[in-house]
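DM from R.C. (forwarded with permission)

"hey, sorry to bug you on a friday — could you get me a structure for this? deadline for the figure draft is monday and I only need the backbone to look sensible"
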Amino acid sequence: MLSQQTKRQFEKEPAQSVIDAIKAFVDTSPANRMPSTRELTIFDEPLVRFADGDDPIFLEYKTIIAATHLTPREALAEAYDKSPEEIPERLSVISWILPITEPTRKSNRLKKLGPSRLWSHTRWYGEQFNNLARQHVAGVLCGMGYLAVAPPNQSCFMISRNEKGPYSNWSERHIAYAAGQGTFSLSDGFITERGIAHRCGSVVTDLVLPPSPRTAEGPYSNCLFYADDGSCTACIVRCPGEAITEQGHDKIKCPDYMATLGYRAGAKDYDDAITVAGCGLCQTKVPCEYSIPAKIKKIEQKKRE
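My reply, with the result:
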């Protein structure tokens, strides 16, 4: 139950209230703690931004990703067993980035074949926490009388596979791009102002929130490889499965590697409960690990001029 004070504040400043609710959950939830060492948190303070639920970019994703990729309107309609036309006229998408903490990133920088214990736990238990965050945010909004849904937590969420590899019908990275959180990378990661080492989450709601601007020049402009004529190939060097080349990220080689050598080198050695591994080597010991190197380089060039 939300207190009357919380409800009044929410009605007065909805955008800030959403941001505060997400940050408070990340800061106080016991689930945001490493199971192997409760002294360490899994994620740092989140970055929160918003997108217009009917932004045309969501229709573009049906071509860029797959025809099955849900628009926010379709996702909300599916959750409430309605047609898209029955959903309120204005929708918003709340996107958050959960930056991975320094101790975890530091431990993964030392690895060459598979993830460190902390990184492996972040991929598995951290995503469990992310699901709780999705549930919490949607619950807060529903408690205020709004429609709200986290698509990855719904039965309609699917991961499919085509000739290029696996894809989902709700890509958290693409949702983050729509909300102006950052851009994509050569490795298929997502580079935000806090770097590429993170997890993404989102919720769709009929609460009207101010869309955050997309300030990036293009979908890959935060990546040094694209922004600086191929000068950076750090993620190519870091990939033990040879799944990253100058042509991009091979979404078949990558999971295949993790299912064999990479999986044995990391996840199962640390915790028998883990059934999904995440290598993460291309997200650590690279220039974009904790910042936007392309942006920094531009600033430095301007200073020299």
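R.C.: lifesaver. The mean pLDDT is 91.
me: no worries. The chain has one domain: 4-299.
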